[in-house]
Amino acid sequence: MAVPAFFCPLSHEGVLAVRGADAGKFLQGQLTCNIDYLSEAKATLGARCTQKGRMQSSFRILLQGDGVLLAMASELIDAQLLDLKKYAVFSKSKLTDESASWVRFGLQDADSALVSLGLDLAQATDSVTRTNDLIAIRVSPARAELWVPVEQGDDVRTRLAGHLPEASLNDWLLGQIRAGIGQVFGQTREEFIPQMINLQAVGGVSFKKGCYTGQEIVARMQYLGKLKRRLYRLTMAAGELPEPGTALFSPVHSSAVGNVVVAARSDVGIELLAVLQADAAEDGNLHLGAADGEPLHMSDLPYTLDSKLETQR
Question: Residue 284: left (phi > 0), alpha (psi -120 to 50), or beta?
């Protein structure tokens, strides 16, 4: 479906920085993604898990200066900093909250606006281009993030507004939902293992990098387990916009069968991503909040799950 071009501030996320000589080595043992995959022209999604494989955070990570930057839901920053610092004591790494140092924008069908800023961004997902301290990242087809040092924020916003209408964060999240990219928020912290939000299908899990916190559980689920819950895309006609973590129900089950991951309004109702029990998804009789709540309807994701491809990285 056609989506008008726009830009919007990404006000829901903050930036955690890990800098220093050991930044990459330190994070390699903490995150699901392969830090060695990062380059000046490549970013990736990733997550940080508990020992039991439950995601404490999910993020987009990229190289910058003498370390890396991780963009994640703002409410997760403080807890992740506090916990990571415990493990970084004997590492030449410094962890800080750099949220106030960056202004970040989401752009839809806005490559011409990026070019006007000197950023010729490749079409491949996870591609990165840089100029004059500006960073652009391709996050999915036709969608990009623009990272701007705060001192340039007002000027860049004015220049973007000369090319594009400014939209709400809802419109950006709607594009994320249609791209099938799940995310951890404060309400869903430690609820899901990475495969439950299809993180391995969008490049956020490496099965060849070696050990990291929670790796044994994540790898076992990929190679030996049978995943009973995973990410689905759904729509509903009307109602209140559900918060992350809102329970989903099926009349044929005695308890909740899943949880909302992220939701946004569209022209015809509400679209959302949710982690659901496979049998309930197959049955298709799904309701929000209660067994007799607002009915939900299944919709397609833009990718298929293929374990052979997902484990090559």
Answer: left
Comparing CA positions, the residue from 139, 113, 112, 107 lying closest to residue 43 is: 139
pLDDT tens per residue across span 138-169: 999 999 999 999 999 999 999 999 999 999 99
Q: Which two tokens stand for residue 61?
A: 């990570």
DSSP three-state, residue 30: coil
What are the binding residues for substrate?
Answer: 145
Which DSSP category does 166 fall into? B
Helical ranges in 102-165 per DSSP H:
111-116, 153-161
pTM beyond 0.85: the answer is: yes
Q: Which residues are annotated as a binding site?
A: 145
Contact 235, 270 (CB under 8 A): yes
Count how many residues are written for the chain.
313
Q: Counting beta carbons within 10 angstroms of the beta carbon of residue 300, is it exposed (0 to 12), middle (13 to 18) or buried (19 or more)?
A: exposed
Kind and range of the H or E run holding 269: strand 269-277
Q: In what order do the strands lie in the sheet with 102-108?
A: 6-9, 102-108, 143-149, 134-140, 128-131
